[in-house]
Write a structure and sequence with these properties.
Blueprint (H helix, E strand, L loop, with lengths): L14 E6 L2 H12 L2 E5 L3 E7 L2 E7 L13 E4 L2 H10 L3 E2 L8 E6 L5 E6 L1
Parallel strand pairs: 1-4, 5-8
Antiparallel strand pairs: 2-3, 3-4, 6-7, 7-8
Amino acid sequence: MSDSTHPKLVERIDAVFLPVKNLKESLSWYQEIFGFELRWENKKMCGLSIAPNCGFHLVQISNFQPVNEYTPFNYVVKDLENVRNKLIGKNVIVSQLRDGEPKRFDMTDINGNIISVIQL
Protein backbone atom coordinates (compact mmCIF):
# COMPACT_ATOMS: atom_id res chain seq x y z
CA MET A 1 0.00 0.00 0.00
CA SER A 2 1.49 3.33 -1.05
CA ASP A 3 1.21 6.37 1.13
CA SER A 4 3.22 9.53 1.60
CA THR A 5 5.79 7.75 3.82
CA HIS A 6 6.20 4.82 1.38
CA PRO A 7 5.76 6.11 -2.18
CA LYS A 8 5.30 3.55 -4.94
CA LEU A 9 8.50 3.18 -6.97
CA VAL A 10 7.21 0.82 -9.67
CA GLU A 11 4.27 1.35 -12.05
CA ARG A 12 3.69 -2.24 -13.23
CA ILE A 13 5.39 -5.47 -14.25
CA ASP A 14 6.47 -5.03 -17.85
CA ALA A 15 7.31 -8.61 -18.81
CA VAL A 16 7.45 -12.21 -17.67
CA PHE A 17 10.49 -14.29 -18.68
CA LEU A 18 10.00 -18.06 -18.91
CA PRO A 19 13.08 -20.29 -19.16
CA VAL A 20 13.08 -22.83 -21.98
CA LYS A 21 15.36 -25.62 -23.16
CA ASN A 22 15.19 -24.84 -26.90
CA LEU A 23 13.98 -21.45 -28.14
CA LYS A 24 12.90 -22.54 -31.64
CA GLU A 25 10.94 -25.58 -30.41
CA SER A 26 9.34 -23.59 -27.60
CA LEU A 27 8.40 -20.71 -29.88
CA SER A 28 6.74 -23.12 -32.34
CA TRP A 29 4.90 -24.86 -29.49
CA TYR A 30 3.53 -21.63 -27.98
CA GLN A 31 2.45 -20.39 -31.41
CA GLU A 32 0.78 -23.70 -32.29
CA ILE A 33 -0.93 -24.27 -28.93
CA PHE A 34 -1.93 -20.70 -28.03
CA GLY A 35 -1.69 -18.75 -31.28
CA PHE A 36 0.68 -16.18 -29.71
CA GLU A 37 2.21 -13.91 -32.34
CA LEU A 38 5.94 -13.26 -32.41
CA ARG A 39 6.84 -9.65 -31.58
CA TRP A 40 10.63 -10.01 -31.79
CA GLU A 41 13.37 -12.65 -31.60
CA ASN A 42 17.14 -12.88 -31.15
CA LYS A 43 19.50 -15.83 -30.58
CA LYS A 44 18.47 -16.47 -26.94
CA MET A 45 15.08 -14.83 -26.45
CA CYS A 46 11.80 -13.94 -28.09
CA GLY A 47 8.84 -11.79 -27.18
CA LEU A 48 5.31 -13.02 -27.80
CA SER A 49 2.15 -10.95 -28.12
CA ILE A 50 -0.56 -11.86 -25.63
CA ALA A 51 -2.20 -8.57 -24.65
CA PRO A 52 -1.39 -4.85 -24.61
CA ASN A 53 1.10 -3.88 -21.89
CA CYS A 54 1.97 -7.52 -21.19
CA GLY A 55 5.35 -8.82 -22.28
CA PHE A 56 5.75 -12.60 -22.42
CA HIS A 57 9.28 -13.73 -23.25
CA LEU A 58 10.81 -17.16 -23.76
CA VAL A 59 14.48 -17.33 -22.75
CA GLN A 60 16.74 -20.21 -23.79
CA ILE A 61 18.87 -21.22 -20.78
CA SER A 62 21.99 -23.38 -21.17
CA ASN A 63 21.55 -25.14 -17.80
CA PHE A 64 17.75 -25.27 -18.12
CA GLN A 65 15.68 -26.67 -15.27
CA PRO A 66 11.88 -26.54 -15.60
CA VAL A 67 9.83 -24.38 -13.26
CA ASN A 68 7.78 -27.27 -11.88
CA GLU A 69 7.56 -26.73 -8.13
CA TYR A 70 5.25 -23.72 -8.42
CA THR A 71 3.49 -21.77 -11.14
CA PRO A 72 5.40 -18.58 -11.99
CA PHE A 73 2.31 -16.86 -13.45
CA ASN A 74 -1.29 -17.38 -14.55
CA TYR A 75 -2.94 -17.17 -17.93
CA VAL A 76 -6.39 -15.58 -17.57
CA VAL A 77 -9.18 -16.98 -19.76
CA LYS A 78 -12.91 -16.31 -20.17
CA ASP A 79 -14.09 -19.95 -20.40
CA LEU A 80 -11.86 -22.21 -18.32
CA GLU A 81 -13.44 -25.54 -19.20
CA ASN A 82 -13.44 -24.76 -22.93
CA VAL A 83 -9.74 -23.81 -22.84
CA ARG A 84 -8.90 -26.91 -20.79
CA ASN A 85 -10.71 -29.14 -23.30
CA LYS A 86 -8.92 -27.47 -26.23
CA LEU A 87 -5.55 -28.02 -24.53
CA ILE A 88 -6.40 -31.67 -23.91
CA GLY A 89 -7.32 -31.94 -27.61
CA LYS A 90 -3.83 -30.63 -28.45
CA ASN A 91 -2.23 -33.26 -26.15
CA VAL A 92 -1.15 -30.72 -23.53
CA ILE A 93 -0.77 -32.15 -20.02
CA VAL A 94 -3.36 -30.51 -17.74
CA SER A 95 -4.40 -31.06 -14.14
CA GLN A 96 -7.90 -31.60 -12.87
CA LEU A 97 -9.85 -28.44 -12.06
CA ARG A 98 -8.65 -27.11 -8.70
CA ASP A 99 -10.96 -26.48 -5.76
CA GLY A 100 -11.58 -22.94 -4.57
CA GLU A 101 -11.53 -19.56 -6.21
CA PRO A 102 -10.59 -18.54 -8.75
CA LYS A 103 -11.57 -21.47 -10.95
CA ARG A 104 -8.27 -22.87 -12.23
CA PHE A 105 -6.12 -25.72 -13.46
CA ASP A 106 -2.44 -26.18 -14.18
CA MET A 107 -0.87 -27.08 -17.51
CA THR A 108 2.63 -28.23 -18.44
CA ASP A 109 4.43 -26.75 -21.44
CA ILE A 110 6.82 -28.51 -23.83
CA ASN A 111 9.70 -27.79 -21.42
CA GLY A 112 8.05 -29.17 -18.28
CA ASN A 113 7.21 -25.69 -16.92
CA ILE A 114 3.95 -25.62 -14.96
CA ILE A 115 1.65 -22.67 -15.62
CA SER A 116 -1.74 -21.96 -14.04
CA VAL A 117 -4.79 -21.12 -16.11
CA ILE A 118 -7.49 -19.19 -14.25
CA GLN A 119 -10.92 -17.79 -14.95
CA LEU A 120 -11.76 -14.42 -13.41
